[in-house]
Design goal:
252 residues, alpha/beta, Rossmann fold, four-stranded antiparallel β-sheet, 11 helices, globular, binds adenosine-5'-triphosphate
Length: 252
């Protein structure tokens, strides 16, 4: 399968502290790839570097083209990358519709005038956003905010959607809804790089997984195989699914 994203020997530092160390990773076309690991493993840092918010060393290829240090966030978004950060970063006083509109801004600047079509596609994926289109983003529930954050990223028509902890703080039913939408997005041709503490749900949804610990890759493989790996089970999944032994919230 051809690579949409390929990173080779990528390191990211905060001053003298190396948060990600010589990491290799790839995301194929229409693949869902999970990045799991404990707190502080470097998952958010890697995504921030990939979208151009942090400098990194090593090589990053997107659609086979090498990304360069001067390729800023706007450029990477124009190439088809999008990041939904853990903090969602919505414009709280603005309406759902206006937040979506801002997600299309970079395409609008390039001359694309299909805002309404893109918005309607987002509304068909998230009917709840349509119902609340006039409501201020800051008054939405946690699940609705996550839907809006994903919807706003989709307004840029990305081919790679990077999701940082999409299930964070959400009720199990909403988590299931978000994961089913992630699968729908893949079906529509979007590749997903997924950072999740909810390792069970992430591996269940993914084709491939990477396990990071203190900035280093410790395991990788097809997601179904990783979910059976004793080290992954012990560290992230709990010994027996469905009981309180797991340190990770389980998806029903
Ligand atoms: P979590 O699951 O808790 O979100 P993570 O795997 O996403 O963790 P990061 O947030 O990428 O981990 O952090 C990786 C390391 O980099 C941590 O040791 C963290 O303290 C450090 N770090 C993150 N942001 C900064 C920063 N702005 N300045 C200095 N160090 C930072």
């Amino acid at each position: 399968m051809s690579s949409l994203l390929e990173i080779r020997g990528v390191s990211v530092s905060y001053g003298k502290v190396e948060a990600v160390r010589t990491l290799d990773l790839r995301v194929g076309e229409k693949q869902i790839v999970s990045l799991i690991g404990p707190n502080g493993a470097g998952k958010t840092t890697l995504m921030a570097a990939l979208i151009g918010l942090l400098p990194c060393s090593g090589e990053v290829f997107f659609h086979g083209d090498k990304l360069l240090p001067h390729h800023d966030v706007a450029h990477r978004v124009s190439l088809g990358m999008a990041l939904v950060p853990e903090s969602r970063e919505l414009f709280a006083p603005m309406s759902v519709e206006d937040n979506l509109c801002l997600g299309a801004f970079s395409r609008y600047r390039r001359g694309d005038r299909d805002y309404s079509d893109a918005r309607n596609e987002v509304f068909s994926l998230f009917p709840r956003l349509k119902e609340r289109r006039k409501q201020a983003a800051g008054t939405l529930s946690g699940g609705e905010r996550q839907m809006l954050a994903i919807g706003r990223a989709l307004m840029g028509k990305p081919c790679l959607l990077m999701l940082d902890e999409p299930s964070l703080g959400l009720a199990p039913r909403i988590i299931s809804e978000i994961f089913s939408i992630i699968e729908d997005l893949r079906q529509s041709g979007v590749s997903i790089l997924l950072v999740e503490q909810n390792a069970r749900a992430a591996l269940k949804a993914s084709d491939y997984g990477y396990v990071l610990e203190v900035g280093e890759l410790v395991l990788s493989g097809p997601a179904a195989k990783l979910a059976e790996d004793p080290k992954v089970i012990e560290s992230f999944l709990g010994k027996r699914p469905g009981i309180a032994l797991s340190p990770i919230p389980l998806l029903v």
